[in-house]
Structure formats: structure tokens, C-alpha cells
Amino acid sequence: MKISTQSFLLIAFILVLNSGEAQVIGKTFPEMTGETHDDQSITLPQDKLDKYTLIGMAYSKKSESDLNTWFSPVYHKFIKSDGGGVFGGFSYDVNVFFVPMFTGVNSAATGKAKKKAAAKMDARLLPHILFYKGKLKPYKEALDFEKKDVPYFFVVDKSGTIVYATSGKFTEDKLEAVEEALDE
């Protein structure tokens, strides 16, 4: 059977669309223990199975800057308490964690990064930053993230199952997709 170049390209395009993020949907999020800026230990998803959890992860300096593009929009959509009012009941009840990952020789910088975050970051966002120090390989394999220069985001349900995944800089479309996953 002979396949034309156009057919081959179409098949390759479909395979690319179905790889990466789509492959992790339905998998259990792997256990990950990290610390907040004030040294509180949290294990995801086990410690946060009370509700859905949005987890953003970055493991390089470049990906960390893209992770930062999500801070303000996620804060305003999912964390900020608006104090009631007409639309007070329309907020999401979701755990949110941004996870800078310190692995290999970079793991020595975790303490310095915590201090820097505490000094420079909005105090209302600090409880949502989880500093991970450890091995990268188990997460790269389990979560199918290979591009070190982009952050990865996962919506995890109450059973610890990944129901949505995306990567890269913040966009309104990605935020809408996160909302849709939370609404289901």
C-alpha cells in the first residue's frame, strides 16, 4: 500500500495533536511533595483531594518566566476572594499551586528561591507556590513533558486523576479550557 505525501503529513499532524498533553488525561497525577515559602510540606495530589486542583509546573528559568504569566489571571479567576456581592457565589472552589521544580545541581537554590519569593511576591499568592526539590525524571515520564522551556498545567480531580492538561505561556483560550474542565 502506497501512501501519498499529503496523506502522510495528515497522519503525522494527527499524531502530533494526540501526543503530549492528551496522553496524560485520565492518568493519576504522580505524588509530589514540596514546601511553601514558610516550610509547610504539602504532597500533591494526596493532601488536596478535597476539591479540584490546578497545578502549574516549571523546571527551567525560561519556563519559570512563562509560568509567571499565569499568576495574575489565575489569581483573579480562582484565588481572589471578591467579598460577596451580586456575583459572589460564582467563584470557583479550587486548589491552585504553582510549582517551580529544583532538580539536580539546582536543588541547592531552593532556599534562596523561597526567600526571594517571600520578599518580592504578593503575599496573597505565596501560599500557592510550592517549591519542589528532587528528581525530575519520574515527572517527565509520568506527565509527558519534554520541552524544558515551557511550563505545564494540569487540572486534577478529587480522585487525583488528570482531567485537563496544557502547556506554555498564558492565553485566554487556555484559561477558558481550564474553566471548562472545572465545570464538568
Q: Helicity range of the residues?
A: 25-40%
CATH class: Alpha Beta
- Give the strand tally: 7
- Which oligomeric form is depicted? single chain
- The assigned structural class equals alpha/beta
In the CATH scheme, what's the topology name? Answer: Glutaredoxin
Please give the largest β-sheet.
5 strands, mixed
**Physical arrangement of strands within the biggest beta sheet:** 5-4-3-6-7
Radius of gyration: 18 Å
Please explain how this structure is put together.
With about 180 residues, this protein is α/β, with parallel strands linked by helices. The chain has one domain (about 20-184): Glutaredoxin, CATH 3.40.30. Helices cover about 35% and strands about 20% of the residues. The chain starts with a helix and ends with a helix. The relative contact order is 0.22.
Topology, element by element:
Layout: H1 5-17, H2 21-24, E1 32-35, E2 41-44, E3 53-58, H3 61-68, H4 71-79, E4 95-103, H5 110-120, E5 132-134, H6 137-143, E6 152-156, E7 162-167, H7 172-183
Parallel strand pairs: 3-4, 4-5
Antiparallel strand pairs: 1-2, 3-6, 6-7
Describe this protein with a few key phrases.
184 residues; alpha/beta; Glutaredoxin; five-stranded mixed β-sheet; two-stranded antiparallel ribbon; 7 strands; globular; disordered N terminus
Describe the structure in brief.
By secondary structure, this protein is α/β, with parallel strands linked by helices. Helices cover 35% and strands 20% of the residues. It has a 5-stranded mixed sheet. It has a two-stranded antiparallel sheet with strand order 1-2.
